[in-house]
Amino acid sequence: MIDPVGPIHQPGPRQARILELLASRGFLTVREIAAATGVSEITARRDLVELEERKALKRTHGGAMSLRNGQAEIFDAYEPTFDARRRRNSRAKVAIARAAAKLVRSGATIALDVGTSALELARCLIDAGEIKIVTNNLRAAGLLADSPHSVYLPGGRVRGKELSLYGSATANQIRSYWFDLAFIGVSGITESGLFDYSPEDTEIKRIYMERAKRVVVLCDAQKFGHHSMVQVAPLTAVHLLVIDQAPPPALAAALASAGVQLLYA
Predict the structure, then answer these.
(1) Do residues 116 and 86 touch, judged by C-beta distance below 8 A?
(2) DSSP 27-85
(3) How far is CA 111 from CA 18, 117, 174, in A?
(4) 13-75 in CATH: which number?
(5) In angstroms, what is the C-alpha Rg of the chain?
(6) Partners of 32 in the beta sheet?
(7) Domain segments of the chain as ranges
(8) pLDDT tens sequence across 52-68
(9) Confidence band (pLDDT; 50, 70, 90) for 119?
(10) Phi and psi at residue 184, in whole multiples of 5°?
(11) DSSP class of residue 231?
């Protein structure tokens, strides 16, 4: 295939178009870039190499992501299936869950969010000292049903394959509780705050956070620099972040400025 432009060392509107697309979408595959600019994938890769050398973007496996304030951020437009998310960085999630479980003391009342990290935490809590658990996570409630704990499920509407409860009935019931700890899962975290895919689940996360003495966020390193449809809360709403790796410098500085403590799994 003959590309309709000159050599890569001559910058032009094609590379500007790549940066424009990345600014609006956050991430593009090499195939998408080639199709959008009318060149071969080989030429698209050359463009990405040159633009990365200029620190205009960050290349990833199979594509590139935008840079904001010198740090890479990815916009996750679509929510992967629960099973796909559970397989992603699974070892780190198990380690994070084990570290988070050590924060729970016998007699505590906790809020347990939905998501894959929260499900791993539920497994770790089965043999914990007797506690009270309020959750809209049907999977977690099923795991904990035969444990010595008191498990409370609010009423509400079931959110499909996610198996979470949401809606006004769910929100109103949860507002009647106070929590020693709220364990929150997120789809991503940036200097701007916490993010999630679902407006429905986000409403419940916010109530958990409002009603808890201490807010603990479970976040593996693959979520650093990711944002999605809904901002759950600013970093200042978090007391403790349980992670498996150190965050990048800009995010670490933002967390420190917000007074967020870090617990490494």
Answers:
(1) yes
(2) EEEHHHHHHHHTS-HHHHHHHHHHHHHTTSEEEETTEEEEEETTEEEEE--SPPPHHHH
(3) 43, 14, 9
(4) 1.10.10.10
(5) 21
(6) none
(7) 13-75, 82-264
(8) 887 778 887 778 877 65
(9) very high
(10) -115, 135
(11) E
Q: Tell me which fold the domain 82-264 belongs to.
A: Rossmann fold (3.40.50)
- Residue 91 burial (10 A CB sphere; 0-12, 13-18, 19+): exposed
Q: Do domains 13-75 and 82-264 have the same CATH topology?
A: no
Tokens describing residue 257: 């400025």
Q: Percent of the chain at pLDDT above 90?
A: 60
Neighbouring residues of 238: CB distance < 8 A, sequence distance ≥ 6: 194, 215, 216, 217, 258, 260
Which string of DSSP letters, residue by residue, matches 93-127?
A: HHHHHHHHHTT--TT-EEEE-SSHHHHHHHHHHTT
Model pLDDT for residues 156-198, shown as the tens digit of each residue: 999 988 899 999 999 999 999 999 999 999 999 999 899 998 8
Cβ neighbors of 255 (< 8 A, separation 6 or more) are 235, 241, 247, 262
The amino acid at residue 63 is G
Tokens encoding 238: 């978090």
**Degrees (nearest 5) of the Cα angle 148, 152, 154?**
165
> How many angstroms separate the CA atoms of 103 and 181, rounded?
9
Task: Give the residue-averaged pLDDT of 201-211.
Answer: 96
Q: Is the dihedral of CA 77, 80, 82, 87 positive or negative?
A: negative
